UniProtKB/TrEMBL annotation, chains A, B:
Belongs to the glycosyl hydrolase 67 family. Residues 109-130 are annotated as: Disordered. Coiled coil: none annotated. Keywords: Carbohydrate metabolism, Glycosidase, Hydrolase, Polysaccharide degradation, Signal, Xylan degradation. Residues 28-158 form the Alpha glucuronidase N-terminal domain. Residues 1-22 form the signal peptide. It comes from Hymenobacter aranciens. Residues 481-704 form the Glycosyl hydrolase family 67 C-terminal domain. GO terms for molecular function: hydrolase activity. This is Xylan alpha-1,2-glucuronidase. InterPro entries: A-glucoronidase_C_sf, GH, Glyco_hydro_67_aGlcAse, Glyco_hydro_67_aGlcAse_N, Glyco_hydro_67_C, Glyco_hydro_67_cat, Hex-like_dom2. It catalyses: Hydrolysis of (1->2)-alpha-D-(4-O-methyl)glucuronosyl links in the main chain of hardwood xylans.
């Protein structure tokens, strides 16, 4: 009796002493909190009584340590890591085994995420050294693959099973990445600021490096590895030459040393003018032998310091950055020179196609016009990195016309996780559907089904290399991404980069369960909010295909009245073309004819207002205010309806979020709830700004049942201007 | 036996379940970790069995909650907060009592910090409503004062007794602030960057406000209140007009709402041109009635939104900022206009004296020349805010000659806690001695003993108001200040602002015990490192009175060779004046005669190289390389000796720090240890840069026993230049 009482008291005490700190979001989706269901936990515990890690591969050791850490938290059980399985033991455990003969083809078979099983593809990732298999053998779970990295991915997949409360019994899971280079691009500056960063300063503390290694670097590496990211460009594409100096390479090497055990390689953005700026040369002409020699020598130095260096990312002749065109050369001349500098080193050149110049017709077309003719001219180590859409990371864009148009060139997809044009870290916008929409878009390059995904993963043209890049939304804010739901965008990018067949909704659910709650109704509600959020954002900001009407410079809030700027293609009127007749940019043959860059099937569908999907309408057509749309309403009424229902939908998001309050950590819940308040205030701001401004052209009333804005256009212009003040 | 065993096991379990997270520095000096000495803890526990908080004053409630929180942690004991003491109870506790008749004069009597007891002064703070008394009455500790804020300060003082393990028995402690306005100045921009900030982005999340209140704001308020800071300027002196708009005032009010319960008022930096930028006026002339009306109206609006608003900080006609001189008016015209706008509101105008213009002779003199003639012209609500030295927050400066020269004007002292010229967040530099050195400097304005402290606290001239400002070193980095020891600078500023008679060494010890360790030998070592650190920094960067030879723009690292800049007084050669004859800026009557701005006693002492303290020598004299100094060495040899011994002293700091390793949290220890590595690398950088550069003028060898630098001047210039690249 005494014993029982004491034991009970002991349990109480144990419960009381659980650290009761609020969830500040630092742990991301790797919380590893104890599985509450005792029976399920017991099942898991029985299957995980030991870990065997065979061999000394450094990434394998990371995998074993991560598995031990995860099991400690999830199962509340210390699990030993052994070098080999005990003979004749009756215990069941998990064996991590590097198998040089493993050939895991590009497929994913998971119980809970992918809709499709056993999808085979001719992807470049076939037989990827990063693919893993989890199988049940002799009562044990065996995680195998050709490399330590494969095992690390396998371990995270296994932990994900537990984190999402899936059964382990007879688990058989095979997965291999469909894309080879899965990179985050940091637009981080040497002074610690982040261009278009909304989550605090850069996590990279250049001033402290190489001597001080912020413990956060390792948590960053863990998070990336857990979603399959295998490369990181550390610095802004508007690059400083600093990073190519021995002084900074020592710092870069220190970061590389933290990322290496997680299977992650570092890359650098390079300043094209570096040979002049730090090399003492008088030119950066890619055909100049001294310039070539400088890069070759510098590249050798980099590989001496960082043997697994990943390669170069280049923004050239874009937005004022120097480039080979300064010397009458083209992008291929530049990229190929860097590829030659890489020589025998295992690295890549990622050359960005984001180029446009003032006054050259329709900005929509420029990257195509500069790059498409270069197809076939790029060296094997070069990938051309193309943004998802032709303008610049708008809330919704048609896919970039270069996809499908450069069959002889591996094209990387660049998406933006930092919400430059999607409400910074203040608006809840889950980007899974945006990324997926682009990946699933059909280019018709080789007939129906020639999706962007197949262009990017290399399967359409059997390219040997493939890549995808996400512009990071990560900063030094405690919760990494500012908005807690920004974490879901980081997460979804990694998951889709690994396997673009996954559904964004399933990824959202997975993330929600790992990050926020296991309560089924709450998971459903939150997942629904996430899935709708991007469409809602589009509706209250840029419905029907409007684009680029945001606040100048800041890229926040509405400024459709922006008429003058340093360049015409930085104004808003360049894009919306509102006049007394109607609204929208005519990109048909009657207009800029940008539509001609797409395949005939698309030209036909998008070329007629009757068949063009409403979401893309004003991307391609200048339509009269009274034009009846497929929705049954005249353009003006449909426009207003979307602005009003879009803003109202934020109230729906608020209600959904309020309802899950009991199921979510209080601090986290309050954080998101408060941001949803800001979001609604600003959704009304967008709505009123846009309907009042466009009304000056349409001269039509706000349609019933929507109330007139209570403020004037002048008032809202004044309010918006405040955010543009120095 | 079973019971005993179980109890023992229970204890073990309790110990094991103590949250074992590494110390990330977030809790600053308010850790409230349990007092390890069981006997001492029991004594404390016996004295703290209840808290009585009499009344509903909001700051009093804060005080009671803080006391409860502190005791919970320190004593591991839940202490109830009662509205009144229980009758006939035998328990002993702590009573918080607002006593409207309390008259706590400006004095500090503490057992552990102040060398002097019962120091009376005629300070403006006499009978301050913020003064508190802690007395033992009927077995209870009674904390009393005229206001809730007084009690809050008393509670923090009481907790400090426990945190530093002082006895509570018969405690009698009286303390009152010597200076009325004790402010942090944040140089934080609306976009989230911090000018001269080295600890991440701004803690103020303007985008999220007013709806989202970051929980960090309250921790910030607690930290400030714990050291007596009672006001905060939220935005950069290079001010945006945004903050004066209703849109932003709602955000400011939300922050004010968090700070108010901690006795802290918010202030704003204002853009002089605001009437033009956001007011629609065509002028900002302070004598223009429309301008006056605009400010008066705007000020009324502010007080409607924030009833306890503190007032305005102004940087005018300085470094390109607009100001009254744009209209031919002077600083007094501008400041007095704002004072009139404040009208009956309880607020102040803090007008900065940091002004200098290109090509106007010696920059040293300009603030004096512009401001001294205005003495007596300022309205009562105006304080003129003067930097500690005449140039700009250099590692060591003579005190600003305005101190003592404007008897009819309350002068605020502005010191810089962010280490703009002192190694950012990378070098360990404790600023207590720097601040104290200025405060103790004798102006001789009314004879010997007319210290800067007495000018600033108002006692020298019996001013009704007094103030001190510290430019904050706070950012969103997890540990607030980047370098963990930066916290000591925030702490020391608050303590000295409250009572400038405290010794920096005692403050350092106090901070160390509250923040790092209680182990006596470790406390001694760390305190010693802190106390020496600023002198060491001066030695390896700017010994003997050198100044302003740092990297241009960046203000980091050496650049004594800087010859050209946008302005002559932004170069290094303007200040060091090295030539084949010698080194230093002749500010005697033979030179710029800046020395004439000081009292005769100082003119005499500093005017002769023989009597001028070595620390100020090159501030006032251009001396031949071979000139024998009071140290016995020729100038060149002494210069080299200081550079070499200064750099070597960083190794001493490293050794001292290594020795305290067992007594300090591992993560914190590793952090500081790594930064000390950077510091030594960069101390050598400074040393080599300066001795090699000055050697090109002196043409003398590095004196024995010091080794020649192993690198060339060209090499080090190249290395320094890297940090200046975009």
């Amino acid at each position: 009796m005494l014993l029982r009482f004491t034991f009970f008291f002991l349990l109480l005490l144990a419960a009381a002493m659980q650290p009761s700190v609020a969830d500040d979001g630092y742990r991301l989706w790797l919380k590893y909190d104890r599985v509450a269901d005792a029976s399920l936990r017991a099942q898991y515990q029985a299957s995980a009584q030991f870990i065997v890690a065979e061999g000394q591969d450094v990434v394998l050791r990371t995998a074993a340590a991560e598995l031990q850490r995860g099991l400690q938290g999830l199962l509340d059980q210390s699990v030993p890591v052994l070098n080999q399985a005990e003979k004749n033991s009756t215990k069941r455990g998990i064996i991590l085994r590097i198998d040089p003969t493993a050939n895991v083809s590009a497929q994913t078979n998971t119980a809970n995420v992918s809709g499709k099983k056993k999808t085979n593809s001719a992807s470049a990732a076939k037989g990827s050294p990063e693919g893993f298999q989890i199988a049940t053998q002799g009562g044990n779970l065996v995680v195998s693959g050709r490399s330590g990295a494969a095992l690390l991915y396998g371990v995270f997949a296994l932990l994900r099973q537990l984190q999402t409360r899936q059964p382990l019994a007879n688990l058989a899971l095979t997965s291999s990445p469909r894309i080879q280079y899965r990179l985050l691009n940091h637009w981080d500056n040497p002074n610690g600021t982040v261009e278009r960063g909304y989550a605090g300063s850069s996590i990279w503390k250049w001033q402290e490096l190489p001597e001080r290694i912020d413990p956060r670097y390792e948590d960053y590496a863990r998070a990336n590895a857990s979603i399959g990211i295998n490369g990181v460009v550390l610095n802004n594409v508007n690059a400083s030459a600093r990073y190519l100096t021995p002084e900074y390479l020592r710092k870069v090497a220190a970061v590389a040393g933290v990322l290496r055990p997680y299977g992650i390689r570092v890359y650098l953005s390079v300043l094209w003018a570096a040979p002049k700026v730090i090399g003492g040369l008088t030119t950066s002409d890619p055909l100049n032998p001294q310039v070539q020699q400088w890069w070759a020598h510098r590249t050798d130095e980099i590989y001496k310091t960082i043997p697994d260096f990943g390669g170069f990312l280049v923004k050239a002749n874009s937005e004022g950055e120097p480039g080979p065109q300064d010397y009458g050369r083209n992008h291929a001349d530049g990229a190929n020179m860097l590829a030659r500098a890489l020589g025998q080193h295992d690295g890549a050149v990622m050359w960005r196609a984001f180029v446009y110049q003032a006054g050259s017709g329709d900005r929509f077309k420029q990257a195509y016009e500069e790059f498409q003719p270069l197809d076939g001219k790029f060296a094997p180590k070069v990938l051309v990195q193309v943004k998802n859409g032709p303008i610049d990371f708008q809330a919704r864009e048609p896919f970039h016309p270069l996809f499908g148009a450069m069959p002889r060139t591996p094209l990387m997809l660049e998406v933006q996780l930092t919400q430059e044009y999607l409400g910074f870290a203040t608006h809840l916008v889950y980007l899974g559907p945006l990324i997926k929409e682009c990946l699933m878009a059909d280019t018709y390059a080789k007939g129906p089904g020639s999706t962007v995904a197949k262009v990017v993963d290399g399967s359409l043209e059997n390219h040997a290399v493939s890549g995808i890049a996400g512009v990071a939304n990560i900063g030094a804010d405690r919760n990494w991404t500012g908005h807690p739901v920004g974490q879901a965008n980081w997460y979804a990018f990694g998951r889709l980069a690994w396997d673009h067949t996954l559904s964004p909704a399933a990824i959202a659910e997975e993330w929600t369960r790992m990050t926020l709650t296991q309560e089924p109704a709450a998971v459903r509600s939150i997942t629904q909010v996430l899935n709708e959020s991007r469409s809602i954002y589009v509706r209250y900001t840029t419905p029907l295909g409007l684009h680029h009407i945001m606040g100048q410079n800041l890229h926040y809030g509405p400024e459709p009245w922006l008429t003058k700027s340093a360049r015409p293609d930085w104004t808003a009127i360049y894009y919306h073309r509102a006049d007394s007749v109607g609204l929208g940019f005519d990109r048909t043959a009657m207009g800029s004819n940008a539509l001609a860059l797409y395949a005939p099937a698309l030209r036909q569908r998008w070329g007629s207002p009757a068949t063009c999907p409403p979401d893309f309408l004003l991307w391609f057509h200048h339509l009269p205010w009274g034009q009846k749309l497929s929705t049954g309403r005249p353009l003006w009424d449909e426009l207003c309806t979307r602005y009003y229902t879009g803003a109202d939908s934020v109230l729906w998001m608020q209600r959904q979020w309020a309802a899950v309050q009991p199921a979510v950590d209080a601090e986290l819940h309050a954080d998101v709830a408060a941001r949803l308040q800001v979001q609604h205030r600003e959704a009304l701001w967008w709505r009123d700004a846009c309907v009042l401004y466009f009304q000056t052209f349409s001269r039509r009333p706000i349609p019933a049942p929507f109330p007139k804005p209570i403020r004037s256009l002048a008032e809202i212009k004044e309010q918006v201007a405040i955010y543009q003040l120095r």
